[in-house]
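tokens incoming
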């Protein structure tokens, strides 16, 4: 899917997401800078998306299929607001540049 199309489609769907609460908290801390805990992120991605193909969305020109989680860790986390979406655009994971993430899905679409 084209980068601009992914951004447009996911922007329209963001307000339909219902965010999970984990132990009465919506956000999960993964750290910032050199203290980013890649294991927390890997576990959350594996648990939330299972074996789904994942699109990374952070720019109208550079969004697309996430081929390797290492790309996410090395260059983007802690610097940008990022969303991961499954291929069907029914599940998402939002990352904030302050070192927190949350999982969500569109109701009835899990």
């Amino acid at each position: 899917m084209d980068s601009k199309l992914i951004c447009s489609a996911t922007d329209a769907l963001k307000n339909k997401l219902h965010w999970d609460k984990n132990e009465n908290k919506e956000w999960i801390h993964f750290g910032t800078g050199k203290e980013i805990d890649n294991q927390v992120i890997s576990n959350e991605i594996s648990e939330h998306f299972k074996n789904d193909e994942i699109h990374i969305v952070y720019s109208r020109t550079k969004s697309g299929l996430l081929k390797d989680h290492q790309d996410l860790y090395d260059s983007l986390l802690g610097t940008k607001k990022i969303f991961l979406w499954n291929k069907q655009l029914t599940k998402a994971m939002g990352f904030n540049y302050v070192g927190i993430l949350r999982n969500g899905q569109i109701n009835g679409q899990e």
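note: The chain has a mean pLDDT of 87.
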